[in-house]
Amino acid sequence: MNVIPSPVHLLDRARSTFDLTTLERAIYGSNQRREGMRPQDFDVDPQTGFFPPRPLPHLPAAFSIWEESLAGAQQALRLAENQTPAAVAKRTAGERWRANVRSWPVLNIGDLRDNLRCLQRAHMVLAFNLHYYVHSMPKANKDALVHIPAPLAIPLAAVSKELNIAPVLTFADVVLWNWEFVDPEQPLSVGNMRYVNLLSGTETEAAFYTASAAVELKGVEMLQIIEGFVNLADTSEYSSVAKIYRDLCQLKTTVEELTEIFRSIRSAVDPHSFYWIVRPWWNGADTKANGQPGWVFDGVPNYASFDLAGPSAGQSSVMHALDIFLDVDHKLVHHRQPAPSEANKKAEHGFMERMRRYMPGAHREYLNRIGSVPRNVRQVAEATPNLREPYNAVVDTLKRLRDEHMKIATLYVITQARTTPPASAGIISVEEPKGGPAVGTGGNVVSVTLKASRDATQRTRLSDA
Ligand code: HEM
């Protein structure tokens, strides 16, 4: 296959092993990146943000077995716990699908290494196949180890290493890389994209991905504001303060619009189907609180250290970018008011950082870059009387967004955990203990995690001078 290595990808590949500054100079031939932040250097597009500007191309013919399995998976497979007659009738086809995966040759990903878009596509295709494989397979008991066959496990681990991303289905796979244009002549927008791979094959799943995409695409406006701040030479100049003032006012409007998108989820995504039909496919191997068995990556030496929680919108890079820009202290490092509650203190403070490990490495680098400015916007606002009010207005708006998000999580996870599964789920015995605290995809107690996050946002507010 004839592929030309892109500078972005070479940069990404070499990050872990070479001195970044030397590498940057070699690639860019100047100090460009050190002087200003260019989103493209982090695989962030000025128009489409964390989405690639065009759908990912299909893999070259040598890897078509991966693509073909994914294309046939939805038709052949149902969740293992689904005991409806229609699902039981599919068992033979399901076993044939899994036997086919086990019979694949172990493909070397060498030819994909130099093409970022092919690597992303390979990750998406293999990770979808992984979740189909694991969750369709009948288990002897709930604690049985699940063996991921080497022909799937080895290339998935290798591709993930190249992309610096977890070897499991992530938000990037289901939302950022899993769409095609409705009209390829028109630019990317929520109305002009269609989600392709749906584990459950339901409208509910497509609607969740679409709502997440709406947040990501609206978030591009925030990225432009954030990058404008990062690239300001001197934040104390009159013109800079005026720009920050204008941008904070605009940011408040954007966060209000994001809140509206969150509100609209309730009319677009069915909570019962979300919890019982879609969500089980997303489970990873970390969700031990569900009694989920561990996964063994056959032929991969260090799999025990992998992050395997599964996709969560908590991995959305735009939401993290906003938090980092405003300096929301999720880790409770700073002494801010009101002091953390006992529940806040007990929440897992590394949650947001852990979610970042599920992002593509280049996007994680982008977030690091935003966080590395000498003076963040909170410090600038604290020191500049005119900026305190617009800064606090953004923080208040983000707090209201998180209030809305908590209501959604309560309705879609906490309330549903106490309901009976729909007949179409075909679940005879419910594994999750009724009445126990509901856990998120990441395995944390949902209410505690989200309240801690909302309260950390509130503490970001600057007190009256
Ligand atoms: C039906 C819709 C949704 C539900 C039920 C939901 C539920 C949850 C849950 C349970 C968590 C806890 C963490 C975990 O996964 O373990 C969480 C965290 C999070 N979710 Fe959502 N979510 C939804 C939509 C979204 C969307 C559309 C976004 C943005 C694209 C989003 C962004 C986040 C973020 C950034 C976190 C990390 C905690 C925080 O920032 O407060 N969520 N969500």
Automatic annotation (TrEMBL):
Entry keyword annotation includes Lipid biosynthesis: no
Domain of life from the UniProt record: Eukaryota
Entries under Pfam families matching the protein: IDO
Keywords: Iron, Metal-binding
Keyword Protease assigned: no
PANTHER family found in the cross-reference section: INDOLEAMINE 2,3-DIOXYGENASE
Family statement drawn from the similarity comment of this UniProt entry: Belongs to the indoleamine 2,3-dioxygenase family.
Protein name in the entry: Indoleamine 2,3-dioxygenase
